[in-house]
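User: Working on a comparison across species. This one is F-box domain-containing protein from Clastoptera arizonana. Can you predict its structure so I can line it up against the others?
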Amino acid sequence: MSDSEESDISQDYIISLHNLPVEIFLCICSFLNATTLHNKLRLVCKRFYDILSDESYWSIWMKRRWPLLKTPALEISNEDKKVSLRSVYYHIDKELYLWCENGKRTRNIELKNFHIAEVDAVKLIQNGDIVITGSRDRNIALWKVHEDSTQPFKYKANAHLGWVWDMAIESGNRFYSGSWDSMIKLWDIEAELVQVSGFK
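Assistant: Here's the predicted structure for F-box domain-containing protein from Clastoptera arizonana:
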């Protein structure tokens, strides 16, 4: 056999990710997390994009990775907006990854000795620098996450007439609080927690 024939044969047997059989490629993918698959490997080339954009692949991948997790029932209220299972599973996997393994990927912050009842509403704002807490004691408090203070830097006593049950962010300096008093209130952090508006 000549050198050129050996060279031709060896070129035929060079294995790379690009020419792996789909089954082997998917087996390798089963060891990778959703962020790597969705945000990196899927964008390497058209072949990977086609394989890793398939909804059925993500359904199988999720069942293998999180066998006890039930497939979410997706209701699409607007026909123009298509909800992708790939996107749903990607976000579920990201959240499960953050919270699994007994908090090894989280940092414990204790905010105690202020609220006198259970805290039911917690929101991180301003890139995770500030946490807002709302409690059954009807108070709202703002804490600086990176300080070791046992007291909030701002608070609103009796912010509601009932338990503070939920919060939502409007912007970096404004947030909504919802309560058992059937009120939703908009607060301004910069203005010393002044209530901007409220509605029932």
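For your comparison, note: Strands lie at 119-125, 130-135, 140-144, 154-156, 164-169, 174-179, 184-188, 194-199.

User: Helpful, thanks.
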